[in-house]
């Protein structure tokens, strides 16, 4: 039987047996990205405008390179668009009827889930459907949706961080069917996590692992260190049987693993190891399967807090808020949102990561800031942060996305509007920006691209906050191989 020939959203014609790629290494050889979708937020800025999905031109040969070329506002106010996922990815590669067409946009605050059609016009996506928060709440009791992943079954699974009152005990996993109707909860009754946040599944090991931010009633009001002591933030990984939804094990990361956020397995589906970034303690923790089939964890990378003057605390954590792994599983990248740096580590030996690239692109301790680092000898220090196209870099690096070939790293700088207001009020006033960092994917190394700068200060409805990024053809933080 002849293979089905289709035209993909990046304009290339290919033989396709379903969306995505047969393997991570095949994905690395995929076409260069030309568009990137960015969730942009007005919620919490006081501007009274709906959040929107921006389309940014990332084709260096295009006359609109490094510019927002379309904006899709959502129909309601107060959503706080945050993370996003696809209706189908490489986990459905062997299914000819599956199609990576719809981008799923959960709203972290309102609970609405928007389904966006990116296929009719990839440069100007359109709204396909709204899954109303009230419908989700009525059928599942879930609220505060965060991470969305497609499943090989065609369903879509979304982690939800609490109940309608913002209590973490109400967290769990929402299932939508392929038509985006609410099916129910994924986890078995009585198997909800202590706190919800991110998740990643590795089917060959019959395992899903989820992480834990905190109770929405706490984090939506801004960060309060007392709330950590009060038990309103997480420090656990939850190990589930896949696809059965049974909570098999809870890993307590202890004082080294406070606020574990983004969770990634290695892309090679045969591997039984992955990492989680623990924000408050600024540690990368590696989790892995033990010989007896249970799961364990160890500290992989630690970012020391800096002794500072003129800040709210005498020491400043790096605050690791996002990380990712290159598709060949050679490099791990993460950001320190408060310090302001982006790091690259070689993880070919997963037990011994090696720092291979480091660049400063913002942060609270950059030159010109009132906050200074106090060195051991009593001298003070500040980071030398480059200007790009004459613009001083605002905020700190927050979300990152890597090109399929591993040579370009895109960076935005908004975390969550309430936390932005608390730590970087300037970006609420002046808006986010988006950068691109050139990557040496052979020997290691990072260098800011001076020709790329998307300034969300100049948006038609006023400065906005830019968060997560997705390519039309998928990427290393949305695609899972089975």
From TrEMBL:
Provide the transmembrane region boundaries: none
Q: Which domain of life is it from?
A: Eukaryota
Keyword Acetylation included in the entry's annotation: no
Q: Which GO terms describe its molecular function?
A: selenium binding
- Name the InterPro entries for this protein: Se-bd
Which keywords annotate this record?
A: Selenium
Family listed: Belongs to the selenium-binding protein family.
Name this protein carries in UniProt: Methanethiol oxidase
What is the species listed in this Swiss-Prot or TrEMBL entry?
A: Manihot esculenta
């Amino acid at each position: 039987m002849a293979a089905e020939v289709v035209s993909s959203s990046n304009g290339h014609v290919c033989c396709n047996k379903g969306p995505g790629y047969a393997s991570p290494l095949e994905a690395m050889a995929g076409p260069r990205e030309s568009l990137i979708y960015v969730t942009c937020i007005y919620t919490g800025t006081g501007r009274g405008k709906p959040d929107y999905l921006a389309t940014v031109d990332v084709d260096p040969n295009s006359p609109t390179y490094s510019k927002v070329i379309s904006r899709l506002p959502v129909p309601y106010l107060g959503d706080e668009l945050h993370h996003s996922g696809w209706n189908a990815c490489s986990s459905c590669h062997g299914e000819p009827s599956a199609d990576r067409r719809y981008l799923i946009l959960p709203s972290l605050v309102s609970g609405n889930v928007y389904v966006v059609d990116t296929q009719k016009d990839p440069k100007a996506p359109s709204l396909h459907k709204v899954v109303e928060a009230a419908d989700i709440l009525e059928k599942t009791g879930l609220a505060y949706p965060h991470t969305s992943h497609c499943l090989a079954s065609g369903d879509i699974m979304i982690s939800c961080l609490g109940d309608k009152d913002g209590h973490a005990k109400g967290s769990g996993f929402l299932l939508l069917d392929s038509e985006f109707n609410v099916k129910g909860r994924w986890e078995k009754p009585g198997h909800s996590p202590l706190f919800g946040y991110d998740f990643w599944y590795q089917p060959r090991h019959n395992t899903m692992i989820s992480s834990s931010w905190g109770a929405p009633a706490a984090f939506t009001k801004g960060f309060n260190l007392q709330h950590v002591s009060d038990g309103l933030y997480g420090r656990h990984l939850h190990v589930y049987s896949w696809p059965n939804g049974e909570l098999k094990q809870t890993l307590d990361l202890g004082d080294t693993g406070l606020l574990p956020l983004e969770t990634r397995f290695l892309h090679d589906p045969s591997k039984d190891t992955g990492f989680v970034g623990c924000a408050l303690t600024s540690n990368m923790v590696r989790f892995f399967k033990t010989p007896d089939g249970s799961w364990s964890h160890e500290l992989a990378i630690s970012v020391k807090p800096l002794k500072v003057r003129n800040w709210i605390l005498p020491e400043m954590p790096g605050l690791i808020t996002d990380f990712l792994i290159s598709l060949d599983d050679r490099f791990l990248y993460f950001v320190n949102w408060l310090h302001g740096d982006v790091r690259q580590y070689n993880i070919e030996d997963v037990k011994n990561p090696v720092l291979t690239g480091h660049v400063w692109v913002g942060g609270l301790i950059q030159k010109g800031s009132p906050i200074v680092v106090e060195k051991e000898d009593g001298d003070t220090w500040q980071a030398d942060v480059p200007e790009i196209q004459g613009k001083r870099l605002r905020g700190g690096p927050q979300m990152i996305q890597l090109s399929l070939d591993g040579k370009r790293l895109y960076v935005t700088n908004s975390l969550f509007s309430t936390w932005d207001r608390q730590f970087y009020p300037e970006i609420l006033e002046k808006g986010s920006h988006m950068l691109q960092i050139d990557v040496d994917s052979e020997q290691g190394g990072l260098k800011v691209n001076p020709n790329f700068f998307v300034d969300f200060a100049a948006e038609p409805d006023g400065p906005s906050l830019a968060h997560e990024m997705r390519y039309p053809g998928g990427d290393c933080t949305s695609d899972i191989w089975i």
